[in-house]
Amino acid sequence: MSEAHKIKVKNHLADMMRQPGGRSVIEALRGAEARLDRNKGQFLEALDRSISRMEVAGPQLNEAPNGAAATEIYQAANDMIAMAGVVGYPALDEVAHGLCDLIDVLRIEGNWNDQAIRVHVDAVQLLRGLRPEDEIAREKVLEGLRKVWTRFGVEIRRG
């Protein structure tokens, strides 16, 4: 790209932080972390609502695709992506990404498999109930799902 075509975007936040008396990066991060901690309960409630939506829609999937149930699970997983990392559940974030990608692949290829989706719903419930120190169990669940993703040609996303 030539010099004439480069676009420079002004970073207003960085400019404000460089001003005398402005907040340091560390202070800004501490403030953001404190706000997240204050709202963590609300994020966990929203995460649990997404899981409940999946639980309700899962049995409605059927061998022939139930579009409404698949869409509900997809939207719940998409909502989960927005919250899981924020509240310290990176495994749920990975599963939610994989589930959305799996549903996309199944819809595009017309190779519907309700069991592959249901195993994700079960995994989400299991992962949410694990204690933070249950790393071995969490990794076993993820390993199993990664095999499902590979089988259906879903690109694996981590971290």
Write up this protein.
The chain is an all-alpha fold and 159 residues long. The protein has one domain (40-151): Up-down Bundle (Four Helix Bundle (Hemerythrin (Met), subunit A)). 70% of the residues lie in helices and 0% in strands. It has helices at 12-18, 25-57, 67-84, 90-109, 114-129, 135-151. Helix 4 (90-109) runs parallel beside helix 6 and helix 5 runs antiparallel to helix 6 (135-151). The longest helix has 33 residues, at 25-57. The chain is elongated.
Tally of domains: 1
Q: Using the coordinates above, name the CATH class.
A: Mainly Alpha
Q: Distance between the terminal alpha carbons, to the nearest Å? A: 31 Å
**Proportion of residues in helical segments:** 55-70%
The helix/strand order is: HHHHHH
Quick check: average pLDDT? 84
Quaternary state of the chains: single chain
Largest sheet: none
Shape: elongated
Per DSSP E runs of 2 or more residues, the count of β-strands stands at 0
Strand content: under 5%
Short description:
Helix content is 70%, strand content 0%. The protein has a single domain, classed as Four Helix Bundle (Hemerythrin (Met), subunit A).
Output the keywords.
159 residues; mainly alpha; Four Helix Bundle (Hemerythrin (Met), subunit A); 0% strand; elongated
